[in-house]
Amino acid sequence: MRRRCHDGTPRVRAGEVVLITGAARGIGASVARLLHQSGARLVLIDRDEHALTKLVTDLGDPDIVWIACDVGDFDEMQDAATTAVARFGAIDVVVANAGIEHWAPVRTVAPQAFRQVIETNVVGVFNTVRAGVPSLLDQRGYVLVVASVSSYTAVPGMAAYAASKAGVEHFANVLRIELADHGVDVGTAHMSLVDSPMLRDTQAASPEFRALLAGFTGPDAPPGDR
Question: Which residues in the chain show pLDDT less than 70?
Answer without folding.
Answer: 1-10, 192-226
